[in-house]
Amino acid sequence: MGALENASSIATLSVSDNAVVSGFIIAGDEPKTVILRAIGPSLEQSGVAGAVSDTTLELHEAAGGLIASNDNWRDSQEATFAEGGAYHPLQPASELESALAITLPPGSYTTVVSGKDGAAGVVLAEIYDSSRNANSRIVNVSTRALVQTGENVLIGGFVAAGDAETSLILRALGPSLSQSGISNGLADPMLELYDGNGSLIGSNDNWSDDPVQAESFGQLAPSSDRESAIAVRVGAGNYTAIVRGKNGSSGVALLEIYNSQ
Asked: What span, in angstroms and rounded, lies between the C-alpha atoms of 113 and 236?
């Protein structure tokens, strides 16, 4: 069975929309250890201009209660991420970046990545599955962030692992976010999926454009005809999903990835 091993999203924080909100669901009957990271300053080493100068990270349970938080990763996580620690390979490169290593029971969780003191700029939010086992797996990851014009779009990356292909449903929501009290939802999102070589392997504007594919969405069919979705089977490897606004529009969008196996 295929699995989601890692997921990340990169977006631009503005002064008015100063958070990237990500969700994930752990299914199964055993606890799972995950690594959460909020990366900002070190993005400039990868050629990303305008990275946020200082990040903060919060983890919330399904009802909204705060489980854990971190500002600078050494504050409370140094033992696990420093040299000799269990998660040293995932140590953030900057002292101002945030990280949490935590074991969680099956359930739904939300992370909030922000710029400290309202700092704006590009930020990367990541989740790693550090305890891959057959009795517990990540079945959904999602990210809500501001989609702007030009290169300031919402980019989600993920790693599929395992000997078998992974069946996925990807969605890009905008108009229906008003049902959750978000007034500036992206009016018409467009969704693209690329493989590790940068080749386009799927794209969609309005989810019902392809009647054959639309039938595979079932209860995951978006509620607005202007929202986008892709059903795909992928082999082990790295993939990138990009959410843009049609005709250069901007607004808040939700990118979701479901392991539909």
From this structure: 28
Whole-number Å distance between alpha carbons of 143 and 246: 19
Q: Which residue has the tokens 């620690």?
A: 85
Burial of residue 135 (CB within 10 Å: 0-12, 13-18, 19+) is exposed
The b-or-e profile of 103-121 (16+ CB within 10 A means b, else e) is ebebeebbbbbbbbeebbb
Angle at 201 between CA 196 and CA 207, to 5 degrees: 130
Query: Tell me: the pLDDT tens digits for 75-96?
Result: 989 999 998 889 999 999 999 9
Overall residue count recorded for the chain in this entry: 261
Q: Enter the tokens of residue 141.
A: 């990851």
Closest CA to 99 of 143, 68, 120, 129: 68
pLDDT surpassing 60 at residue 1? no
Residue with tokens 């959410």: 243
Contact 111, 117 (CB under 8 A): no
Instruction: Give the model's pLDDT for residue 212.
Output: 87
Closest to 133 measured CA to CA, from 106, 170, 173, 97: 106
